[in-house]
């Protein structure tokens, strides 16, 4: 028998307040035309009072559990990918656990910025396949609005807040055709200064603000995303032509278009949500996955590739048959 992690449900949660480019242009020296042309972003959600990474994560987790038809007590593992936790410690995953009323489970955060969700999925999948977990909540949740420098128009227009979650469950079958078929993670810490936060408990004792050299990140993103996608498809023994849906990290519509072109993938196989959510870091892949599941684009049997790249740099991808 082959033991795999299969997708049982998806969910998401967004802050109540949506902010259009035009609204942003009232306080930041920018324009709707510039943002749309350079990034494809039209809208983002910004967390208000009482909305935090953990509260959004809890909302997304509840929706994913509902879709899976499971109760919180069925979960024995929570991994939350975030770069904007509610507290430096304990892990925001434990806040989600408490909010869901789960008496005992494994709960921890993963910090790999925009590729955090891929890191979290890969760790959860390893734990499920090894028998260390049966049913996992894997969540990406962020409130980047709270670490943005709102005086820096080159970064503050690009990000938004939100959360996405999935439930993964162990399934044994003879053919192993369903579930996570392959995954691959990478990191290259030499690129720290291209995308980072200029503070932290052990250096400045502050939270810090996001800093980015956008053009250089852009170049690395296209190369790394195309190569890791090729890698996971080879690991799964499948050809890129077999992909039904590519669900990439949503940083910039031009990065998504360039990656699809490089891989000769039709743009209508790429799920695009950057226009409505902007870059929500670790939340962007599960938010896009949830949207395309709920609007009926993703159907049972479809082959999905999830992929992301972010600060560090870190990047990764996984192949999943639903
Ligand atoms: C950030 C990004 C959109 C900038 O686009 P770009 O085409 O590289 O633009 P540039 O940085 O060359 O800036 C072009 C001009 O627009 C200006 N500009 C920058 N931000 C602006 C804004 N929000 N509104 C208006 N003008 C802006 C710049 O000052 C510059 O003006 P100048 O030519 O007079 O100096 C793009 O580099 C990008 O998306 N990079 C990847 C970022 C990313 O995805 N990061 C997350 C990865 S997880």
Automatic annotation (TrEMBL):
Gene3D superfamilies associated with the record: 3.40.47.10
Residue ranges occupied by any Beta-ketoacyl-[acyl-carrier-protein] synthase III N-terminal domain in the UniProt entry: 108-189
Region (ACP-binding): 250-254
Tree of life domain: Bacteria
Main location: cytoplasm
Coiled-coil spans in chain: none
Keyword Transcription: no
Active site: 114, 249, 279
All residue ranges annotated as the Beta-ketoacyl-[acyl-carrier-protein] synthase III C-terminal domain in the record: 234-321
Family: Belongs to the thiolase-like superfamily. FabH family.
Name of the protein: Beta-ketoacyl-[acyl-carrier-protein] synthase III
